[in-house]
Amino acid sequence: MTVLCALPAGDTATLARAAEPLARALGLPLAATALFDAAAAADPANPADVEAARAVAEADLAALLPPGVASAGLSLRLNGEPAWAPPVRLAIAAAPRLLAVDAREAPWLGDLGRAVRAAPVPVLAIGPRYAGPPPTPVRILALADGSAEAAAVAPALARLLGDAAVPIELLAIAVPAVGERPEDREVELAAALEAVEPSLPAPAARRRVEPPRAFESVAAAALRVAAETGATHVALATHGRGRAMRFLLGSVAEALLRTSPLPLILTAPGGAHAAGR
């Protein structure tokens, strides 16, 4: 079992460095794949040309990988499918513990929600504001909002981390509904976090309900708490709907993807991985 990195064209190092601290905490090796589009690399009507181009691409991948990262082979792009689909298909076949992607630019930036919902495992993603490899030891800030969909982050982290001693802080940002007293919302979220905590792997550091500061979005509040607590990763379940990225990924997840200097650990809502949606 590995942490599988889906490398972007032209950069074999950044994503692997981003994934390495968590892979080390899990006691898992890093493996990497790169996209291979036969139609772009060779004449699809000539099988010999395709095989020759594929052999060159596989050799280039193996030669360019950073030390300590093994080649998982190429992700074959079929019939003009979206670029996120081949690495997800490889993850389904290879059964890694985690799929890592570089979502700093297209195509992953726009299609990450689809990839998370189709992947068989959680997805580690770095976005446009990624600030470099997180420090060690790994500490995870897990977000919940009181919904059943968001609570899926807890069992997903339990499956991902197994017996690894990675501390987790469970956080809810208390934004009251119109007409709701802030203290009532905080009490409601505290009870929701208490119900979620038993699904987390040990050691969970603590539960925290945090009201946003003036003009602070939920994503900004989460990143502030991450900085205050020394978190190295932010984990959450996506529970968007619809076709646009903000609906497939969820508005908070989208905002975090675009603004977080830390890697995100994204998991689909309950059952979505198993259903392959």
Question: What's the topology here?
Answer:
Elements (H helix, E strand, L loop, with lengths): L2 E5 L6 H13 L3 E8 H4 L5 H18 L4 E9 L7 H10 L3 E5 L5 H11 L4 E4 L13 E4 L9 H9 L6 E6 L8 H15 L7 E7 L7 H12 L3 E5 L7 H5 L1 H9 L4 E4 L4 H4 L2
Parallel strand pairs: 1-2, 1-4, 2-3, 4-5, 6-7, 6-9, 7-8, 9-10
Antiparallel strand pairs: 5-10
Helix pairs in contact: 8-10
InterPro entries: Universal_stress_UspA, UspA
Protein name: Universal stress protein
Family: Belongs to the universal stress protein A family.
Largest sheet: 10 strands, mixed
Strand content: 15-25%
Give unreliable regions as ranges: 242-247
Kindly report the average pLDDT value: 88
Total beta strands = 10
Can you walk me through this structure?
A 10-stranded mixed sheet has the order 3-2-1-4-5-10-9-6-7-8, with helices on both faces. The chain has 2 domains: 3-102, 3-Layer(aba) Sandwich (Rossmann fold), CATH 3.40.50; 140-275, Rossmann fold (3-Layer(aba) Sandwich). Mean pLDDT is 88; it is low at 242-247. By secondary structure, it is an alpha/beta fold. It has helices spanning 14-26, 38-41, 47-64, 85-94, 108-118, 153-161, 182-196, 218-229, 245-249, 251-259, 272-275, and strands at 3-7, 30-37, 69-77, 98-102, 123-126, 140-143, 168-173, 204-210, 233-237, 264-267. The two termini are 23 Å apart. The radius of gyration is 19 Å and the shape is elongated. It has 11 helices and 10 strands.
Core attributes:
single chain, 277 residues, alpha/beta, Rossmann fold, ten-stranded mixed sheet, 10 strands, elongated
Structure summary:
This protein has 277 residues and is α/β, with parallel strands linked by helices. Helix content is 40%, strand content 21%.
